[in-house]
Design goal:
two-stranded antiparallel ribbon
Length: 138
């Protein structure tokens, strides 16, 4: 089962289809997805890992919004550390690189910290609309 099949989520379909088929995604504009219940993944660097590297824990993702871009190379200068206290790039250096932006009512979470709760002031509501492409002018 893939990372987006077992959890409530909404991610650009072209991106998910490419990940599932192990082909390069054809993202035409900036897009957003969400996993407002958080999630887990075996690797922050390998989109096809089935288990964490020896001695490494599963990466517990806080509730977050994901941003995909047409050119993942544009994300290369951004942090990749999920414990940096803010957004990070997951799967850097691959065609599936995307920005992970933690969201919660009581501040920014980290991938290994407590995800907190959703729904309070400053959080993205539980009734979010999922992926919405931005206008081409963006």
């Amino acid at each position: 089962m893939g990372p987006f099949e077992s959890q409530p989520t909404r991610v650009p379909p072209c991106w998910v289809e490419a990940l599932s088929a192990r082909t390069e995604p054809e993202v035409e504009s900036v897009g957003f997805g969400y996993m407002l219940q958080g999630g887990s993944t075996p690797s922050n660097t390998d989109p096809f890992a089935n288990a964490p590297a020896d001695g490494e824990p599963w990466l517990e993702e806080p509730p977050h919004v994901m941003m995909v871009v047409p050119d993942p190379a544009a994300l290369e200068a951004l942090p990749t550390d999920p414990d940096n206290g803010g957004p990070w790039i997951m799967w850097q250096g691959t065609p599936y690189a995307h920005v992970m932006m933690p969201v919660q009512a009581d501040g920014v979470g980290t991938a290994r910290g407590s995800p907190g709760t959703l729904g309070g002031a400053g959080a993205i509501g539980r009734r979010g609309r999922g992926w919405q492409p931005l206008p081409r002018a963006f």
